[in-house]
Amino acid sequence: MKKVLLYGCVIACFLSSCVRETGDAVSIDPERRQQTLEGWGSSLCWWAGQVGNWDEQTVDEILDLIVSPDKLNMNIFRYNIGGGDDPSHLDGHMTTHGKGKRCEMEGFKSSPDAPYDWNADAAQRRILLKIKEKRPDVVLEAFSNSPPYWMTYSGCAAGAVDPADDNLKPAYYDAFCDYLIEVCRYYRDTCGITFHTLEPFNESSTNSWKASGDQEGCHFHPATQIELIRRLYPKLKASGLSTVISAPDETDLERFLTVVNAYVDAGDVMDKVGQLNTHTYGGTPEQREEVRALTGRLGKPFWQSETGLSCKESGLPCNLKLAEVMFNDLRVMQAPVWLDWQMVEEHNDTWCQFQGNFREGTYRIVKNLYVRMQITRFFKQGYTLLETPDPHVLAAISPDKREIVVALLNTSEEDKLQALDFQACGSLKQARLFRTSATEDCLEIESPDIRKPAVRLESPQQSLSTLVIQLL
Questions:
Q1: Over 60: is that where the pLDDT of 5 sits?
Q2: Is the pTM of this model over 0.90?
Q3: Of 313, 309, 381, whose CA–CA distance to 352 is shortest?
Q4: What's the CA gap between 359 and 351, in Å, rounded?
Q5: Collapsing DSSP states into helix, strand and coil, what is residue 129?
Q6: What pLDDT is recorded for position 212?
Q7: Nearest-CA neighbor of 155 among 96, 101, 248, 84?
Q8: Does residue 19 register a pLDDT over 80?
């Protein structure tokens, strides 16, 4: 009998060693509130310029997965006002492997004296209008990567000959502002689309945008941005549009802080900017803290308007690392809006939720869709994030205070056991647990025992779990 007991003890000890305890229980306190979530979404370029040419059934399938509340639940989208390149360049200068001609986000005006061509950009417009139909509460932003080629020094909408130089000629500053406003007015008057914000810049402080490059882009020095905002603001006010200016959409947090502080130092610019946008392709925890403090002090609406991640590995490990970026942006930077860059890509499965074949008009769902769904489906618009001490634990409470949602992220190669303390939440009524892992796709699994305030939840290696709890 002693041998049997001893053997059982060894087995129990072995099993317990396979699941590592994560330390102290994480307290979930409904009173420790952070920002209220406004939503999730993506830009429309470049993917909508491709997918908008596909057959009706396929387009509807993809968009239903993107906007349906029980799927990705996305409600914020950024429409690209294409600059339009010199047509002679489209034979090769702005072509990238696997993504088609990325400058085919067509412009609406081919020369200074040409009339506006409102038949242009039909594919992206088709996706935009379908999203509006399927998701009436959608919030839309219009943004620009580059002015039309004929407004630029290089004669190319991919950037200047020297990528460190501005490419928009000063003589066209006003014309560029007028161009952006005219597109917004057309969509309001003809399509019933009102853009909440207008963003005239995109990653403008980087030295990435070079003539004959592989996508639209334009460098704008901070001083140039300030001058354009000063010109755009009165024109926008006089247009009759309710649209406000958003800026600066810098690539990373260091550049965002530099440019926004330049706006502040200018003295007259921040009153003209209705919303602050940043991308998070780079940023330290300290910079996220600094961004949170700056945006809080300025009191402006704030979006994380684009991000993605380059990884050595593909598939789930990279998808979870991007989820880690998301957790940092939400927990530390306290962005109320978090947007992806692409929804459909062709030759990768990490910058998208669908892998498409642009030539054949077909697609397949990739694991990243389920990783994103673990958050966007359950952390709904109007929910308020709760402060947590663990960077891999995200929590929120519903507006009626009757539902708590907790997500556990495990990017490691070992299983973990996470203790959650719900004592501050009162009585727990019901729980549902969903998980995405190597073998699960936002799958509902057996829920943990919630009869006591301390809940122990297994977090398997390389997984994202979401616990939805109803309160009494």
A1: no
A2: yes
A3: 309
A4: 19
A5: helix
A6: 86
A7: 84
A8: no
- Packing angle, helices 222-238 and 253-266, rounded to 10: 60
What is the Cα–Cα distance from 468 to 144, expressed in whole angstroms? 39
* Percent of the chain residues topping a pLDDT of 90: 85
What is the distance between the alpha carbons of residues 379 and 282, in angstroms, rounded to a whole number?
24
SS3 state at 309: coil
Residue 304 three-state SS: strand
Q: What span, in angstroms and rounded, lies between the C-alpha atoms of 145 and 467?
A: 39
Q: Tell me the pLDDT of the chain averaged across its residues.
A: 92
Lowest mean pLDDT among 93-102, 228-237, 264-273: 93-102
Q: Name the nearest CA neighbour of 467 among 439, 428, 416.
A: 428
- Rounded average pLDDT over 43-55: 95
- Buried residues in 390-412 as b, exposed as e (16+ CB within 10 A): bebbbbbbbeeeebbbbbbbbbe
Instruction: Give the closest residue to 448 by CA, choosing from 465, 469, 431, 428.
Output: 431
| Token pair 């309710």: residue | 242
Region 247-265 average pLDDT: 98
Q: Identify the pLDDT of residue 311.
A: 87
Distance CA 189, CA 191 (A): 6
Q: Quick one: three-class SS letters along 210-253? A: ECCCCCCCCCCCHHHHHHHHHHHHHHHHHCCCCCEEEEEEECCH
- How many whole angstroms separate alpha carbon 158 and alpha carbon 413? 42
Kindly give, in sequence order, each residue whose CB lies less than 8 Å from that of residue 170, ignoring residues fewer than 6 positions away.
Answer: none
CA distances from residue 392 to 106, 283, 284, 367 in whole angstroms, order as listed: 41, 17, 16, 19
Of residues 360 and 11, more confidently modeled: 360
Amino acid at 188: R
Q: Classify 472 as helix, strand or coil.
A: coil
Statement: residue 96 has pLDDT above 70: no
Please report the pLDDT score of residue 86 as a whole number.
Answer: 84
Beta strands across the sheet bearing 354-357: 344-345, 354-357, 362-365
**Smallest Cα–Cα separation from 421: which of 392, 395, 383, 455?**
455
Spell out the residues 6+ positions from residue 399 whose beta carbon is closer than 8 angstroms to its own.
382, 383, 384
Mean pLDDT, rounded, for 273-302: 98
Taking the CB of residue 30, how many other CB atoms lie within 10 A of it? 17
CA–CA gap between residue 202 and residue 143 (Å, rounded): 8
